[in-house]
């Protein structure tokens, strides 16, 4: 009897941890230390706004501090590379975007990371670019602008916030699809480009709706179309470009943002972060902020967001290859 009791007593410490481990394995992942959201852009833009909306929610929802760190430079490459190199445990997140996570993969030579180095978790927001012209341009519709460009090949100029950025490549695709020619004038940011448009020093540009809507509402520029597949609620009378001409039937451009993690991050971590972001997207605060910015929620499962990103990589790769555009990382 004594031997049996001893055996039973010896067995208990072994059985108890096994049961506890099984319970832990079935529970959702939660962070064990401070989380970081790395933004590969300067403060103040849509990527930064997304991150600073998300961080306090994750902190409350997951029970650990969550901080935002801006790592701008080299078109988003520096911040992206930092996350690629981070420990894949869910504590370092990338607030990625169309630039380094789609366009940059084809645009830059010798990129220090591959698409496969990151796992898409969930989108935050997407929003169209808007085609705006100076009031002196004799065009009230997109087809009228195309006709004007064809009558004056290479004589009109369009601005952008920089070579390879979404508004620039939207203009490139627009010219490719419509068979038009114009001079590209890059600026250091959307603000300087918009000022030159208002001054009449450039004739048109594709601008992020979130930054261009103020000039449109003030009547300083004329909006002809949005780049998304559908009209935007902020400008319901402005058509989607693809509505206006058969040549633009496939035209669909959104600047977009979302959360990525290093590729070796375990699936339970990805699922837990995605579930938290689903709850975040459903809050009234986030819905109101996207409406205010002219943006649309980009919630999706990890598989849906990954498919969205893959389509963006392919789309911009084709545009960039057709244009013969290649840049050095710098």
TrEMBL record:
It holds the Pfam family TctC. Belongs to the UPF0065 (bug) family. Transmembrane segments: none annotated. Residues 1-22 form the signal peptide. This is Tripartite tricarboxylate transporter substrate binding protein. Keywords: Signal. InterPro entries: BUG (IPR005064), Bug_dom1 (IPR042100).
């Amino acid at each position: 009897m004594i031997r049996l009791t001893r055996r039973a007593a010896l067995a208990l410490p072994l059985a108890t941890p096994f049961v506890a481990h099984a319970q832990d394995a079935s529970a959702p992942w939660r962070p064990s230390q401070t989380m970081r959201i790395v933004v590969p852009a300067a403060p103040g833009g849509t990527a930064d706004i997304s991150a600073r909306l998300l961080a306090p929610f994750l902190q409350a929802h997951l029970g650990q501090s969550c901080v935002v760190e801006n790592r701008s430079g080299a078109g988003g490459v520096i911040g992206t590379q930092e996350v690629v190199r981070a420990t894949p445990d869910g504590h370092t997140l990338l607030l990625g975007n169309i630039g380094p996570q789609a366009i940059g993969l084809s645009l830059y030579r010798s990129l220090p990371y591959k698409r496969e180095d990151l796992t898409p978790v969930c989108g935050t927001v997407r929003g169209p670019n808007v085609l705006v012209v100076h009031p002196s341009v004799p065009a009230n519709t997109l087809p009228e602008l195309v006709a004007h460009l064809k009558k004056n090949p290479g004589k009109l100029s369009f601005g952008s916030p920089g070579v390879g950025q979404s508004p620039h490549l939207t203009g490139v695709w627009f010219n490719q699809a419509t068979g038009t020619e114009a001079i590209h004038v890059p600026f250091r940011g959307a603000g300087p480009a918009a000022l030159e448009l208002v001054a009449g020093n450039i004739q048109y540009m594709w601008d992020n709706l979130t930054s261009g809507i103020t000039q449109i509402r003030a009547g300083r520029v004329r909006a002809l179309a949005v780049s998304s597949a559908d009209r935007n609620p902020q400008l319901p009378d402005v058509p989607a470009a693809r509505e206006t001409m058969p040549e633009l039937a496939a035209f669909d451009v959104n600047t977009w943002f979302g959360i990525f993690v290093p590729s070796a991050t375990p699936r339970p971590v990805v699922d837990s972060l995605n579930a938290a972001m689903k709850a975040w997207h459903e809050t009234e605060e986030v819905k109101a902020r996207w409406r205010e910015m002219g943006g649309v929620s980009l919630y999706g499962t990890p598989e849906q967001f990954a498919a969205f990103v893959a389509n963006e990589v392919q789309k911009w790769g084709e545009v960039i290859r057709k244009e013969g555009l290649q840049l050095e990382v710098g």
